[in-house]
Every structure is written in C-alpha cells, then in structure tokens.
Amino acid sequence: MKLQKLIEHLHLLTPYEGADPDITSIENDNRKVGPGSLFICIKGYTVDGHDFADSAVQNGAVAILAERMLPLDVPVIVVNDTARAMAVLADAFYGQPTRKLHLIGITGTNGKTTTSHMIEKIFSDSGHQTGLIGTMYTKIAAQAIETKNTTPESLTLQKTFRQMADAGVDTCVMEVSSHALDLGRVHGCDFDVAVFSNLTQDHLDYHKTMDEYRRAKSLLFAQLGNTFNHNHPKYAVLNADDPATEMFKRSTAGLVVTYGIDSPADIMAKNIRMTASGTQFDLVIGQKQHPVQIQFIGKFSVYNTLAAIAASIVSGIKITDIIQSLETLPGVSGRVELVRAGQDFTVIVDYAHTPDSLENVLKTIQHFAQKRIFVIVGCGGDRDRTKRPLMAQIACQYGTDPIFTSDNPRSEDPLAILSEMEAGVKGEAYQIIPDRREAIHHAIRQASTDDVILIAGKGHETYQIIGSVVHDFDDRLVAKEAIKER
C-alpha cells in the first residue's frame, strides 16, 4: 500500500507532503523492521520508540510516524497521538478484518478465560471455524500461539484478525482487558457481541479507583456503536446480578440481553446443585426450562456458563446444540483444575488472583470439603498493593490452613509483599513459606485423606517472575512432584 493512500485514513488535518513509498509492513518494534516498513514511534512505560527511529531506518524503514519531527532521511509524519493513529492505520493496512468476522468480546474482572473457551467450543462444535484471543494463548483455527497480554496492542491485534480471516475463521472470541480498553488497543474492532462477567477489585495500581475501573470496562459496550442495523443487530450481554450492569446499560445502544441467578433476567439458572465433580442446574429462558449438567464446579462457573449461553443464543446457535457442547467441555487449564496423581486428598490449581475470585473458589470448596482446607496463596509484585491484605483475610476466613507464599514478585522484595498480606490478618493463624515450591511440598506432606489443597494465583502459568528473571514453574507439575515424594 502506498504511504499517501495509507495516511489518508488519519486525521484530516495531519500535515504531510512528500515522497510516496510502498509500505510493505507496519511495525512499532525497530527489531522487526524490514525493507519497506512504516515504523511507528510509541512512548512506552520504560522506553520511547522515538529513540529507536534511526535504528528503524537503518533496518529498512521507508517512513516514520512520530509525535515530533525527527531528523531522518525518510518521510516523517507527525501526529498528536501515535498509539491512536496506529490503531487507525493497522485497521486500514490489514483491510478492516473484523468486518469479516463475527467478533465476540468478553470483559470483566473474573471469568473471561473460562467463558471465552466455552463460547469457542460451542461455535466450533456447531461447525464454525473459530479464533480465540486471551490470557492463555491466541488460537487461529487449529494453530495456538503464545501471547504476552490478555488483549494485544492494536497493531498485533489487527494483524491477527487478518491471519484469522485468511485462514477461514468466521468467529473470533476474545478477552478484552480494562487496560486494553483504556489504552485504545481495541479501537477499530467491529464487535458484534459484548459480554460482561463481573466487576470486583483488581488493577487499581493502574486505574486508581473502582469508578475509573468501571468506566474503562464500559467502553466495550459503548464501542458497539450507536446505530441500529436490524439485519445485523449488536448485543450487550450483561450480568443482572452485578451492580455495574446498570451503568453498562446506559453506555450502550446495543440490544441488551441479561443473565443471572438471583435477579430477574432474560436467561437464568435455577435449582443449582453442586458436587466435587460438577454442577447441575435448570436453565430458564422465558417459559422454557432445560436441564444442564457441566463438568465445572462453583456458582461462578454457573455465571460463566450463562454468559456463554447468552452470547451463543444471540449469535444464532440453537439452545440444544449449546447445552450439548457445554456438557462435554471437561474444563479449562488452570481454572479449578484438579491435580490427580493417585493421592487420597484433593489438590486444586486455580488462577484466583483477586479477592473476589479467591473467595468464590474457596466458597465452592467449602461445599464439598470434608476436612481441612489448605490455601496456598501469594500476591504479584508491581501490581495492586491494596488487595494484598484482603487476599490474606479471605484465605484465613475460608481456609483452615492458610499458607502465604510468593506469586510473581517481579521487582519487589517477596518478604515485603508477604508483610503487606500479614497486615490484614493480625491475630489469625497462618504460615509463611516464601519459597512457593516449598510451600506446595509442605501442604502436600501435611495433607490427610479427604483434605483439600487449593494452590491459588497462577493457574495455567508455567513460569515465576523473580526480579527480571523468568523461571520455569508450573503449580500443577510441582504438586505432582510433591505427591510422588510423599
């Protein structure tokens, strides 16, 4: 694509008169630049892309997009906000790929990953070619690709959508983080269905207040657009039991469909019955009831299931096909995942890393626990510090044997993180074992028949970040190792 043609999509008043080279790629990492690239200078948290513009030119960049004029021998287009411009250019360069996809976005504090996997399976079982973008990986048809962020930046996102369209994908399900919404990473995405799971405390290191956190989440529903296309309606699928839903209703012009358990909703679950191996409930839609049995445990799993059902119904999938698909889904990696190694007690690994998600999984465990409940939990470094005492309180409230340990301490002192957790449980009984491997081994050595051990916080992650070093670490593998050593 010619440079002049590409930048026509930018602000009408973007000044540029100059050469018109062919643009073969758009990059914001100078190391990925090749002959014919347009390099976009992005100001990051730790580095400024403007400092690498000269290197990009040496690597073959034929044009630069920047927020200030740079003394280079290639065209430099100056805009006020390169991140915002990058979303516009990426969408144009890759041919507006989301217009070719049925795009379902899921936002909320907890449940995004499980809900997205449920929806992806429903569509796949119904004969659709699917894509998935989320915390665990990106999936393009049958190909899985490792990811760094829950929601990639706009350039990576639009390139991924283009790859999906080229691979024959017709439906993409993606997790949409509050960071991505606030930073404009999903600008240009043509969402057809927007799903809200729940809103509880998280990411206050970034958003500062719950009001700002809620505002960021509301952007997904506002971005459904403001027009009514009755041949192609857009839907906001909202949790009727969460107070934030009222704000999201006011934020969207999309058709609103609600789901819930306790409050009146379009789609409801009644007569919920839970065991250690699964959950049964009656799905109520209007005057009709459908029995449902899923291989997930917990009330929060019922909410995830209802959200997936609602998103699939408004997308045209038959309810009988939806139920059949959900009943055969065995679970999602790192989400209330059972570790089985021949032991006579229960070991569960879960991604619970917020106060609400930890409380939810522990309340669920209390439904079937017969004896002691060990809770191995820590808090991530360089993240929301206000939730640390809350996580400790919840572990002590619902567990019989709380063990505080390291999560991903990153640049912080692990002992300082643990001290902030302790501040919330003065006078309570707990243990501190900073080494996560030793904490897991200790709990498993102490466990007896019918006890339950919850290893919380990291779930599917296969690493631990200490300082700037990423170490191999998988809670599930460490737990199996400890069981075999008993």
Topology:
Elements: H1 3-7, E1 25-27, E2 37-40, H2 53-58, E3 63-66, E4 76-78, H3 82-93, E5 102-107, H4 112-125, E6 130-133, E7 138-140, E8 143-145, H5 154-166, E9 171-175, H6 178-183, E10 193-196, H7 204-207, H8 210-222, E11 235-239, H9 245-251, E12 255-260, E13 267-274, E14 279-285, E15 288-294, H10 299-314, H11 319-327, E16 337-338, E17 346-350, H12 355-368, E18 373-377, H13 388-398, E19 401-404, H14 414-422, E20 431-432, H15 436-446, E21 452-456, E22 463-466, E23 469-472, H16 475-485
Parallel strand pairs: 1-2, 2-3, 3-4, 5-9, 5-10, 6-9, 10-11, 11-12, 12-13, 17-21, 18-19, 18-21, 19-20
Antiparallel strand pairs: 6-7, 7-8, 13-14, 14-15, 16-17, 22-23
Helix pairs in contact: 3-5, 4-10, 4-11, 8-9, 10-11, 12-13, 13-14, 15-16
In short:
By secondary structure, the chain is of the alpha/beta class.
Structural description of this entry:
The protein has 486 residues and is α/β, with parallel strands linked by helices. Helix content is 33%, strand content 21%. The protein contains 16 helices and 23 strands. Strands 8-7-6-9-5-10-11-12-13-14-15 form an eleven-stranded mixed beta sheet, sandwiched between helices. A six-stranded mixed beta sheet has the order 16-17-21-18-19-20, with helices on both faces. Strand 2, helix 2 and strand 3 form a beta-alpha-beta unit. Helix 4 crosses helix 10, helix 4 packs across helix 11 and helix 12 runs parallel beside helix 13. The protein starts with a helix and ends with a helix.
